[in-house]
Design brief:
261 residues; four-stranded antiparallel beta sheet; alpha/beta; six-stranded mixed beta sheet; 12 strands
Length: 261
């Protein structure tokens, strides 16, 4: 099967600090992965490598069967959707929600080109698919955090990416907003034409059953990767967190609880 991501012996150094250490990891096209790690584990560094925003100190990177060093990374990024909370800060707060979504077609902050009728129709369909069609006509700044995240996912899908990265999309959401967003993500991931998905988090309970594979990062190294049910066990997670924890499965999702004396 074709590979969406292939990372071989990748190390990334910033000065004396190694942020990624001899990393090896592969994702097949059509697979959906969760990337799990505490703050400072190297998750953001890895995403920047995948997107070509930083270059590994050593090792090889291939994304969507394009070897880094032999392609125009600006063209490759058009095939990658990246949703992060930092993007919210760059968008124009007064833009209407549908403008935010359709601007994803052009990968611009703000709308400077004239979208076609097909573009507006696609934006409308994506908003409906993600449960945020009712936001049409509303200024982006008036939307809740969960609504903004749905709009950003719709925006990322406008360009029909082959790889979609959701970087801690539930950050800052309350319990019920989180569940509504996760439900929308589950529907998206289950679609026949869904892109390969990477879901980045440090909360195991956000890893939906649709994400069947997980990559554990710790201090810039691959601690383990594989099938969720085989990796996220009490013994392995206690070793991963370097603290005794209990893993509880419920409804196909996994909660990790610290063990108290």
């Amino acid at each position: 099967m074709d590979k969406a991501i292939c990372i071989e012996d990748v190390t990334y150094r910033r000065g004396e600090l190694e942020l990624l250490k001899k990393m090896n990891w592969q994702v097949k096209k059509g697979e959906h992965w969760a990337i799990l790690g505490l703050n400072g584990s190297g998750k953001t560094t890895l995403l920047n490598v995948i997107n070509g925003y930083i270059w590994p100190t050593t090792g090889k990177v291939s994304v969507l069967e394009n070897d880094f060093g032999s392609i125009d990374l600006r063209e490759l990024r058009k095939e990658i959707g990246w949703v992060s909370s930092s993007l919210q800060e760059k968008l124009y707060a007064n833009d209407k929600s549908e403008y935010i979504v359709v601007s994803g077609k052009f990968a611009t902050i703000g709308l400077y080109e004239k979208p076609s009728e097909e573009d507006w129709e696609r934006a409308s369909q994506l908003m409906k698919q993600l449960g945020c069609a009712h936001l049409a006509g509303r200024a982006f700044q008036t939307c809740s955090q969960g609504e903004k995240q749905k709009l950003l996912i719709a925006r990322a899908l406008m360009a029909s990416p082959k790889l979609l990265i959701l970087d801690e999309p539930c950050n800052g959401l309350d319990l019920f907003s989180r569940e509504r967003l996760l439900e929308a993500i589950a529907q998206l991931a289950g679609a026949a034409d869904a892109p390969t998905l990477l879901y980045v988090t440090h909360h195991t309970e956000e890893i939906l059953p649709i994400f069947q594979h997980v990559l554990l990062l710790r201090r810039g190294e691959v601690f383990q990767h594989g099938v969720v049910g085989e990796v996220l066990t009490s013994a392995k997670m206690s070793h991963f967190f370097e603290s005794q924890v209990e893993v509880i499965e419920r409804g196909g999702r996994i909660w990790v609880l610290p063990q108290t004396e």
